[in-house]
Amino acid sequence: MQRNRSDISLIITAHNEGLLLGATINSALAAAKEAQSQGFVTETTIYLDRADRPTSEFARTLAKDLDIPVIETDFGDQGKVRNLACQTASTGYIAFLDGDDLWSENWISLAMQIALKNKMYIVHPEMNWFFGGSNNILLKVDQESESFDPSFLRAGNPWDALCLAHRDTYLATPYCNRDIATGFAYEDWHWNCETVAKGYVHKVAKGTIHFKRRREISQNTQATSRKVLIRDTPLLLYPEK
Amino acid sequence: MQFNVSNDTLRIAKSFFPELQAIKDGKNWNVKFNNKITHIPLFDSELVASQIGESFNSEAGTLELFFLWIDAGREQEIIPTRLFDEKFYLARNPDVQKSNMWAFDHFLLFGAEENRLPNSKTPDCAPEQVIEMRYQDATLSESDLGFLKSIIGFFKRQDVKLAIQQGDSREILTKLPEDENVLLLFNANVYRKSIASQHPELHIPEGKEFLHWIRNGRHLEAAFTPFFSIRHYRNTYSDLQKLSNEGLHQHFLNHGLYENRNGSSVFNAGQYANINRLKNRSSAVLFALKKLQDEGTPIPTRALTINHKSKLEHLAELGQQAELMAERLQSPEIRAQVKKAEAYEPRIDFRPQGRQVLCPQLNHPADDLHSADQLIYNNLAKTRYKALMLIPHCRMSGAARVSGALAHVLAKHFGDENICIVTTDGTAFEHPEWFPENVDILDLHKYTAHLDRDFKIQALVLLLRGVNAQHIYNVNSRLGWETIHSYGKQLSTLCSINSYMFCSDRTESGQRTGYPQEFFTSTFFYHEHFFVDNLQLKKELVQDHLLTKKFADKIVVLNTPTSQQISVAAEPGWKLSKLWNRKKRVFWAGRFDRQKNFNLLVEIAKNMPDIEFWVWGKPVLDSAPKDISEIKNIKLLGEYGDFSELPLESCHVWLYTSLWDGTPTIILDVATAGIPVVASPTGGIPELLDGFPEFLVSETDLLNPNAYISRIRSLVDNSDGAFERAHELQSRVTQLHDAVAFGEAIIETINLGA
Fold it and tell me: Which residue does chain A place closest to B493, by CA atoms?
C-alpha cells in the first residue's frame, strides 16, 4: 500500500478505562478534525489489550457508531500493542493516546507541522496537565533548547511515550517488553533514551497539551513502588572524559 | 551613532545624559554617542516600545527609540517608567499642577534634582546622575527605619540592632552591610540582575545594592537571593496572599526563613532541614549558606548544586524561569486549549493557581538525583571500572582492615586502575595505608549526603551502571546493603554481587540483629558469594535457613590475613628489661561499649589490684562507666593509630572480652605478635584458639569474671610457659591466615562466577 507521508494514525490504547474512553475519543476526534482542517489525513484506531468486559463492550459500540476500527490483543503490555500498531499502520506518522487521557485540540496539527520538518523529529506536547489524583503540570523540554542536558535522562524521564513521530522511527526502535518480574520497566523512558542515543531529536509543540488522568495508582507509580529500574541503554554509561 | 535633534529634544536628552556633547547645525544640534547604549536609566525601552507602537530591538534601537520618545512619545504623554506615579506627583506638588507642564517633564527637568518623590514607595527612580549624587550622602527615611525595626530579629550583630533601635542612620549604614546574616543572604549581583530585568529604569550605584533594597527593593518583586521570591511566596502560602511586597519580605525574614517555608521554587528548605537534622526554628537557608561559605559544602537545590557562591546568580535566574513557566499556564493559547478539553472532561478543571509546574533541570523530582549524579561523575577519576568496593568509611575497625586486604587482592587481580573504592556512609578515610596506593577512592557520601534514602540508593545504582561495574564488593556499607536489597534483582543481571559479613550484633535483650539478619535472606539469591571471616557465622546462617550444600557453598569463609606490619616476637628478649619485671600488665583495646564488654574488664581489674591494666580506646556507642578513673590499676591510654605502635614489650597478657564478634583483627594481631591472650568464646575466636584452652574462656563462662581472672593469673604466674604457648599459636595463626591463601580464595570465587 502506498503510504502518504503526511497521513497520521491516531492510536488509542485501552485496557480497563470503561466510560472514561468516551472523553478520550471525543478529544481525539476534535484533534483529528482540527488536523483535517489543516489538510492532514487522519485515521483513528482503538486497540483493546486484555480489556475488561465493560471497556470492551463500550469501545466496540462506540467504534461502531463512529466507524472506527477496533483491534483486540492479548499482550498485557502497552509496548507490544504500540509495536503492533506501528507494524499495522498504513500511514507515514503515528500518534499514541492512552484510553483515559485527552489531547488538546491543536495537538495533531501543530505536532505534524514540526514532525514534517525533519523525519528524525519526535514531537511531544508542551505540557502534561495532570488531573484527577494530581494537579501537577509537567513541562517538556525541547532537546534543541539550550537548557536541555542529555545527562538528565540518566536520572529521570523528561518526556513520555504519548508522542507523534514518523512510523519508521517506531519501527527502528520498538518499545521493549514490559517485564515487571525481572525488575526492569519504564519502557517509555527507555524508548526515549534509545532514540536520543540513536540521534533522533525530541521536539516540543508549543501550545499543545496532553491531559493525563491520574487514576488511583499509575503504571509509573507502580513501577516506582515496585523498585524497578530502567533497562540498560547506552545513555546510562558515563560518557568518557 | 549620531542624531540631529532640536533644541527641546536636546534639553530633554541632556536630563538623561548631562555630559552629552552637541554641535550646532543650523537650527538643530548634532549629538554623537561613541558607546553603544542598550540601557538608559529612567527609560524602560520595552515599555515605551509597546506604548509607542514600535517593534523594539535592544541591539540596534535603544537610542532611536529614545529620541523617538522625546519627539513623539512625550507628545502622547507616554511615561517611560512604570514607577512614576503621575497622580501622586501632581497631588503632592500643587505648583506643578498649576504650571500646566506635563508632570513627567517637570520631574525630569526639575523635580528629580529637587528630590521630589516620583511615587510613594520607590524614591530612587530618577536619572543616573541624580541617583549617584543622592547616594553619596544617602540617609534612611522614617519609613526605612521603621522597616528595619520590623525585621530587627533577622540581624545578627548587636551593634546593628542597637543602631536600628536608636534610629542612628549613619551607624546603620556603616554596620548593616557587615552583618553576618545580611552577608549570607543578600546577594548584590542577584539583586542587581533582578532589578535590571524587572525595572531596567532603576539605577543602582556601585556597592549600594543593600541600601537600594532598603530604600526601594523591599516594595518591589525584585529578588536579592535565589532562596526567596515574592511571587513564589505569595502564590505558595495562601495565608500570605494579601500581604504587600514589604509585608512578604517582613514575613520571610521574621518567620518563613526560620519556619523553613520554601521561599522559592528551587530549594526545599524543609527537606534540607530534616536531612541535616536542624533544630526547631533553625533556618535551612542560612545554615546551608554558612556551610558553603565556611566549609565549601555544596548546597543541593532542585535546579543545580551550588558549590560556589557565584552559582547563586544562575540559580536565581533558574528560579525566575520556573516562575515564568508557571505564568505560561495563564497564557491565552493555553487557557483556550484547556477550556476546550474541559468541555469533554470537566475534571480537567482549569485553575492554574495552586498547581505545581515541574520542569526537568529546574524543579523536577529527579533534579536532585541528576545533580548528585553529575557531581559524582565530575569527581570520578575514571569513567569505567571493573570492580567497585563499597565501604561505609574507613576508620580504625576490623572491617575497614579487611576491606583493605580485599582491595589488595582485587587490585592485583583486576589491575589498580580497574577498581574503585567507594565510601558510602561517611567521609572519613583514616587509614589509606591499608589500601593499595594507586587505587581510586570516591567519596560518594559527600555527594549524596543531602539526598533522601531512596535517591541515595538510586545514585549508587547510577554510579554502578555508569562505570559499567562487573563486580560489586560490599564490605559493611549500609547503603550497599540497602541498594542490593532494593535493586539486587536487576543488578545481579548486570554484574556479580558479593558481600562481606562479620557477625550478628545483639540487641539489649540478646536477640541477634545486624546485617546478617537484616539483609541475608532478602538478598541471598542476588549474591554471587557471601564472604564471612569465621566459620561460626556460616554455621549460624546455614542453620537459620536450613541451607543445603549447594546454597551453603555460596558462603565462603575467608581467613583474614595477618598484618605484615607486626614484628613477631621470636624471642621475648624484653623479658630481661626492668619494666617487665617490675609489674605484671594486661592490655585491652577496643571501644568502650556493650559489645566489647568494657564493664567486664572493669570487674576483672577491680579483682586483680596487683596487675596493671593498660587500656586503649574510647566510648563509641554507649557511655563508659563513670568510675573508671577511681580504679587505680586501670591506665587509660587513649586511642592508638596502629597495633605496631603499642608497647608490646610491656604486655604479659592480652585480654579480650567481647560479647559477640567475627574474627577480631586485633586478636589476629596479638596472636601474630606472639603474646599470650585470654579471650571470650565469641564468633571466630574459638576457631582461632582451638587447642589453646588456657587462652580461651568456655562458653558457659562468657560473662563470668572469675574465669578470665583465673586464666590471667595462671598466665602471668607462668610467663615462660605462656609465651611458649603464644609462640605455638603464632605459628598456627600465621599459617592459617596467610595472605596468599586469602587472595587465592577470593580469586577462586571470581573464576567460579566467570
Answer: A182
Q: How far apart are CA B50 and CA B78, in angstroms?
A: 10
* Chain A interface disruption, residue of B364, B385, B448, most A CBs within 10 A: B364
pLDDT tens-digit readout, B19-67: 888 898 888 898 888 777 778 889 998 889 888 876 555 555 788 899 9
A146 touches chain B (CB under 8 A): no
Domain range for B107 is 2-132
Same structural domain for residues B514 and B379? yes
* B23 assigned to some structural domain: yes
B38/B101 same-domain check: yes
Give me B63's grid cell: 537610542
Q: Which residues of A touch B329 (CB under 8 A)?
A: 137
Cβ separation of A229 and B461 shorter than 8 Å?
yes
Amino acid at B597: N
Q: Are A100 and A215 in contact (CB under 8 A)?
A: yes
Q: Nearest 5 degrees, angle CA A125-CA A129-CA A132?
A: 145
The verdict on A174 touching B (C-beta cutoff 8 Å) is no
Closest CA to B221 of B303, B138, B121: B121
Q: Which residue has the cell 593469673?
A: B713
Whether B718 is in a domain gets the answer yes
Q: Does A86 fall in a domain? A: yes
Q: In a structure prediction context, what are the per-residue pLDDT tens digits for chain A, which is 241 residues long? A: 444 556 999 999 999 999 999 999 999 999 999 999 999 999 999 999 999 999 999 999 999 999 999 999 999 999 999 999 999 999 999 999 999 999 999 999 999 999 999 999 999 999 999 998 788 899 999 999 877 899 999 999 999 989 999 999 999 999 998 878 889 989 999 999 999 999 999 999 999 999 999 875 555 555 555 689 999 999 999 999 8
Helix H, strand E, coil C: the string for B480-530 is HHHHHHHHHHHHHHHCEEEEEECCCEECCCCCEECHHHHCHHHHHHHCCEE
Note whether B659 and B733 are same-domain residues: yes
User: Do A192 and A158 touch, CB atoms closer than 8 A?
Assistant: yes
Report whether B490 contacts A223 (CB < 8 A).
no
Would you say residue B409 lies in a domain? yes
The secondary structure of B417-472 as a DSSP string is GGEEEEE-S---B--GGGS-TT-EEEEHHHHHTTS-HHHHHHHHHHHHHHTT-SEE
Q: CB–CB of B345 and A27 under 8 A? A: yes
Q: Is residue A241 part of a domain?
A: no
Neighboring chain A residues of B354 at a CB cutoff of 8 Å: 135
Under 8 Å CB-to-CB from B718, ≥6 apart: which residues? Answer: none
* A214–chain B Cβ distance below 8 A for any pair: no
| Domain total in chain A | 1
Which residue, B76, B100, B132, sits at the end of a domain?
B132
Interface list for B 474-493 with A (CB within 8 A): 486-487, 489-490, 493
Provide the domain limits for residue A33.
7-236
User: B-chain residues within 8 Å CB-CB of A129?
Assistant: 338, 348
Instruction: Find the Cα–Cα–Cα–Cα dihedral B589, B593, B598, B603, rounded to 10°.
Output: 170
Where does a domain end: B271, B294, B327? B327
Count of domains for chain B: 4
Residues A177/A137, Cβ–Cβ less than 8 Å:
no
Query: Same structural domain for residues B547 and B616?
Result: no
CB–CB contact B341 A211 (8 Å): yes
| Helix and strand totals (H; E) in chain B | 36, 20
Question: What long-range pairs does B171-177 form, CB within 8 A, spacing at least 24?
Answer: B172/B140, B172/B145, B172/B148, B173/B138, B173/B139, B173/B140, B173/B211, B176/B148, B176/B210, B177/B210, B177/B211
* CB-count exposure of residue B150 (10 Å: 0-12, 13-18, 19+): middle
Cβ of B360 within 8 Å of Cβ of A228? The answer is no
Residue A25 lies in a domain: yes
Do B186 and B69 lie in one domain? The reply is no
